[in-house]
Sequence to fold (150 residues):
Amino acid sequence: MRVQAPENLTVIRSGQDWTECVGDEFAFYDESVHPLLRDAMHFLRDNPRETGCCEMRFAQQFAADGAMLKKSFGLGHFLSLGHLEQWAASDERHLTIFSRFGRMAREFRSGLRLKLWHEVSVLPAAGQIFEYINCHGETGLLPFFPSHEW
Fold:
């Protein structure tokens, strides 16, 4: 099945790398920030109609040998940049994550080793085609936009 994305579909990739975190910094992130982040990503995944987030995947990264890395990322598709901004500005989960990270940054200051980033793109409809092969109808963007066989 193919889905033609609508105008202004917004994609976010939010990365976390705590490879260099040790001691108290690692404990703070592992116990106070990362679990909330994981819960927020699952909330977005499970509540698309409420949030405007059509799809959210939260991925733990692994090395080629199967060893778990201290890296993760969320990859999400929102109906618009406005939907993403509204969620980020008002959702209690996101606000708590932001607050705890602020506390972490103040505590560890210039010694902070945690690396975080966000990549956000607002896409034109032209050229944004998503293909699903042997997938059920609730996969990815299929439940949100018209699709057709190819």
